[in-house]
Design goal:
Elements lengths: L1 H35 L7 H8 L5 E3 L11 H9 L4 E8 L5 E3 L20 H4 L17 H10 L3 E6 L4 H14 L5 E5 L3 H9 L4 E4 L26
Parallel strand pairs: 1-2, 2-4, 4-5, 5-6
Antiparallel strand pairs: 2-3
Helix pairs in contact: 6-7
């Protein structure tokens, strides 16, 4: 008799858990969806304009003809017929958004400094390593945006971390120029596009994926970011 009661209680307990899962999990999932969802409709018209008449893009400009992520490289990309340039964004220790692919300047510059620990006053003096006898300096993000707008190039921002201060600065650069249909912001880190949409749903965002990754944790470039010349072609 005692064994029968115990068995009955176990069955009831399992049924209670099953009922909880069936009814509560969908409700909780729905609540979380509405809490964290972003307004994608706000950027739909901008997306259409962004991709209209788009044919070619230059990855970090034209890095085989000029130093990557430089104005010289973007000029070469334009001369080669590109409609868009992609570039990588970091931020200096004193809060200046700038263009650099790696965490450090070792691979592309004539000094080895960690970008986020160095002031802009120092970084702007670094000479980029020459490509085809052409060199340049590290540009600020706002300088590059202005140059691209003046030269009719669309832009793809590749943001390297989810620093909220940098995300807010990027959103402000887009907002104050009203260039929502000329910029797409992407990242390997899914937090970046999510935060951008929360700040301004009109911004076009994307997630950069590599088919060899199953999740963001598979991205070996999270931190510290690679200085390997073979990384991220």
């Amino acid at each position: 008799m005692t064994l029968t009661i115990v068995t009955f209680l176990m069955i009831v307990g399992r049924c209670t858990i099953l009922i909880y899962l069936v009814f509560c999990v969908p409700i909780l999932t729905t609540i979380l969806y509405f809490i964290f969802k972003n307004d994608t409709a706000a950027s739909s018209s901008n997306q259409e304009l962004f991709f209209k008449n788009f044919n070619f893009g230059g990855h970090r400009g034209s890095p085989e003809k000029a130093p990557e992520n430089s104005l010289a490289s973007f000029l070469k990309a334009k001369e080669d017929g590109c409609d868009l340039v992609e570039f990588d964004i970091h931020m200096s220790s004193d809060g200046v958004p700038l263009l650099m692919h790696d965490d450090t300047t070792e691979r592309t510059g004539n000094a080895n400094l960690k970008v986020e620990e160095t002031k802009w006053e120092v970084l702007k003096g670094i000479e980029l390593k020459p490509v085809k006898n052409m060199t340049d300096k590290i540009p600020k993000l706002n300088e590059v945006i202005d140059w691209c707008v003046e030269n009719g190039l669309k832009m793809l921002f590749d943001m390297k971390n989810d620093n909220i201060a940098l995300i807010e600065l990027v959103a402000e650069e887009i907002r104050k120029r009203n260039i929502y249909d000329r910029v797409l912001v992407s990242s390997f880190n899914p937090i970046v596009p999510w935060r951008l949409k929360k700040i301004d749903p009109r911004i076009i965002t994307g997630i950069t994926l590599d088919r060899s990754y199953y999740s963001y944790s598979d991205d070996f470039r999270k931190s510290p970011f690679t200085t390997n010349i073979f990384a991220h072609f």
